[in-house]
Amino acid sequence: MLEELTDKQREVLDLLVLHKTSKQIARDLDISPHTVDQRITAARRKFGVETRGELAAAYMAAQARSADTAIYERSVYQSSQVESPVAAGDEGIGSNAVSAEDKVHAGSGEPPESTGSPVYHRVVPESFEGRYGYFWRLTAIVGFTLGLLIATLLGLAIFGELSELLQ
Questions:
Q1: What's the CA gap between 46 and 62, in Å, rounded?
Q2: Is 137:128 a contact under the CB 8 Å cutoff?
Q3: Residues forming a β-bridge with 163
Q4: Same domain membership, residue 27 and residue 64
Q5: For residues 26-47, average pLDDT
Q6: For 77, left (φ over 0), alpha (ψ -120 to 50), or beta?
C-alpha cells in the first residue's frame, strides 16, 4: 500500500499524522492548502478510507507493517475501547461490552493477540464517537462547566447567608 503513494503524498501524510491542519501542512511544505487537500484525497482513495483520521490510522498501520515501528511511535488514532480477558460465564455481560466480531480495529487492522476471546469495553460513551461525537463532547463539557458554576455559586450563597447569620 505504501508503494502506491507518491513521495509528495507521503510528505503530506507524515505531517497529517502529527495532527496538522491543511493550512499548517501547506505552510510547512510551501504549497497551497488546495494542493494538500488534493494529495490527501488521492491518498484516501488509495487506502480506501473516508476521513482524515482513518487515513492517518491506515498510514501509520502500513508504516508499522513495513518497518517494525517502536511502540512509542505508533499512531494516536486508536480505538477508544479497552480489551479485557473474558472470564467463564462473563460473555456479553454489561451494556458497554462489545464482542470481538463487532469491534472495528483501528490500529493495524489486526485484532489484538489474546489467549481467549476478548471483550472490549467502551472508555467513552458511544455517542461521543462517530459523526456527531464532537457536538456531544462539547455539549458534555459545557454542561459539566455550568454544573460546576452553579454548585460554586450555590456554595458561595450558602456561605454568605451563614456568615450573616453568625454576625
A1: 12
A2: yes
A3: none
A4: yes
A5: 93
A6: beta
Q: Is the pLDDT of residue 8 over 80?
A: yes
Q: Which three cell numbers stand for residue 125?
A: 460513551
Q: Are residues 58 and 10 in the same domain?
A: yes
**3-class secondary structure, 23:** helix
What's the N-to-C CA distance of the chain in angstroms? 77
> Is there a contact between 65 and 108 (Cβ–Cβ < 8 Å)?
yes
CA 19, CA 158: separation in Å to the nearest integer?
A: 46
Q: Does one domain contain both 10 and 66?
A: yes
- Measured in degrees and rounded to the nearest 5, phi and psi for residue 3 equal -70, -20
Residues 25, 69 within the same domain: yes
In the predicted structure, residue 40 carries a pLDDT above the cut 90: yes
Give the sign of the dihedral formed by CA 12, CA 16, CA 20, CA 23.
positive
Residues paired with 122 in a beta bridge:
81
Say whether both 6 and 63 belong to one domain. Answer: yes
Q: Which three cell numbers stand for residue 38?
A: 488534493
pLDDT of 107: 47
**Domain count of the chain?**
3
The whole-model pTM stands at: 0.42
Q: Three-state SS for 24?
A: helix
- Are residues 98 and 114 part of one domain? yes
Q: Which domain holds residue 96?
A: 78-123
CA–CA gap between residue 128 and residue 84 (Å, rounded): 21
